[in-house]
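Q: Hi! First time doing this. I have a protein sequence and I read that you can turn it into a structure. Is that right? Here it is:
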Amino acid sequence: MNNKLFNRLALVSIFLAIVVIVLGAYTRLGDAGLGCPDWPGCYGHITVPDKHHDVARANQAYPDRPVEPAKAWKEMVHRYFASTLGLLIVIMAIIAVRNRHDRTQLVALPLFLVVWVIFQGLLGMWTVTIKLNPTIVMGHLMGGLTTFSILTWIYLRQTNALTEKRLELPRLNRLHGLALISLIVVIAQVMLGGWTSSNYAALACGDNFPMCQNQWWPAMDFKEGFVLWRGTELNFEFGVLHNDARIAIQMAHRIGALITAVVLAVLAFKLLDFKESKCLGKLGTALLVVLVIQIMLGVANILLSLPMGIAVAHNAVGALLLVLLVAINHAIRPRSEAL
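A: Yes, that's right. Below is the predicted 3D structure, encoded as structure tokens:
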């Protein structure tokens, strides 16, 4: 019974994790990352202050950050969902420990996930207190995606999903390396996307595509664009980089997208080549479809000047692409290789 409860909680947590990721993107893209200038509450409240005297007191305490209810609620809804996800993960860890004598129960990963979520909470706090430092913001994004990926891996291993009769084929073994490389490439590209967003470089090239500033190779400052730490004193809202540095970040993201597309397309077609496995064929098809959708969303972001709905969808599909690579790596590896 505990095992079934654990699996159900894992599945609910997966869906909740993607909701948190989407809400995080919506908050970030809506310039609401500092909608509540303190943490974990909002102007010292567990909800957004709405009474006149509470708002007046909040504005007095934070004169450089007066209450903007729309932005504050975006931030707080994100925190509520993230806190709920953290609570579910703690419950999962407790069940895993209690069920540790069951050989099918993963224990180490659920316990690690509790530690990881605590660290993710700290990154959320630092995102606010260090005023949207790009490295912290990118780290917070990657922390959320890592949580999503680990939850998916746990669920797949616990339920043995996507594991039809294992194929003992030498060419399947050779696929292990490509699948792992593809996962690493996607992680790197997602990090570049996070760096682009957190440095407000998404529109650095204007609406030019595939060119940038009407050039194939415009003036760029990679050294300045990829300084990872600029201290804690600056307010990074709306960015602090000059345009050449932002262009460098945007172009790096575009080049990364091209590399990612090629690598994932190769993996997808190799998966489709496994006629003996319907599961791998479906995963290959899903990978191609999601990849094409992600490319189209990325291009639409540029041509349409980053509309909110498409920008949030680009983040969500990026998360889906990452977790699909996790699922592929799970599907081609025997359970004996599980963490």
